[in-house]
Amino acid sequence: MEDQPALQLLLPQRPLILGLAGCSGSGKTTLARELTAQLSATLLPLDFYYRCLSHLPSEDRSLQNFDHPDSLEHLLLVQHIEELAEGRSIDRPIYDFTTHTRVPDQTETIVSAPVLIVEGILALHYPRLRTLYDFSIYVNAPNEICLNRRIYRDMRERGRTEASVRAQFEATAKPMADLYVIPSARHASVTVEGTDALDWSVEQVLQRLHQLDLVRVHHARRSER
């Protein structure tokens, strides 16, 4: 009887999961989007997981502390990441920042990918989230730069006034950053500067991922196309 070739069982590979954090306005979202493109990743912003405030009068919603860890339903995100890690798709909530509510009866279907990037100011704060990461990134930037970027973003994308953005920054964003966001930097695998050129920040992250043999397979796939 001739020898038969051994059968190799190919099991699905678990996605590479990256956590990316930094203060609001640090440049973390820009970096996350670029890394998403570079790695053909699925991006999971924490911003979509703000708790729905539809139970509050509209005039009271904007008075909430959106920079406190309790403002995010992070355990739902944990559940979604675990499902994506197993190759299943998820129905992600859609959040309306102008009304501080989730869009009723609407979700966005997100499919798994070889790389998942979790991005948000508190992405490195929650222990349950940190246990899911293979690698983590913190984006550092001075307060004044963060404030100016936040004013530009919130006025353009979220219908805010400059005065309201400044008031919220002083009342909650900066104090919460001091308490929760900045201390979470110690959990990062690498820290980059939000004032550096985007290309250089991306290069630092990719170099470190290469050194750890975390993206070799993904880049090989990209080079074959």
UniProtKB/TrEMBL annotation:
CDD domains assigned: UMPK
InterPro entries: P-loop_NTPase, PRK/URK, Uridine_kinase-like
Enzyme class at the top of the EC tree: transferase
EC number(s) reported in the record: 2.7.1.48
The protein, known as: uridine/cytidine kinase
Pathway the protein takes part in: Pyrimidine metabolism; UMP biosynthesis via salvage pathway; UMP from uridine: step 1/1
UniProt-listed Pfam families: PRK
Keywords: Kinase, Nucleotide-binding, Transferase
Gene3D superfamilies: P-loop containing nucleotide triphosphate hydrolases
Domain spans labelled Phosphoribulokinase/uridine kinase: 17-193
Presence of the UniProt keyword Kinase in the record: yes
GO-annotated molecular function: ATP binding; uridine kinase activity
NCBIfam families, alphabetized: PRK05480.1 (NF004018)
Keyword field contains Nucleotide-binding: yes
Protein's GO biological process: UMP salvage
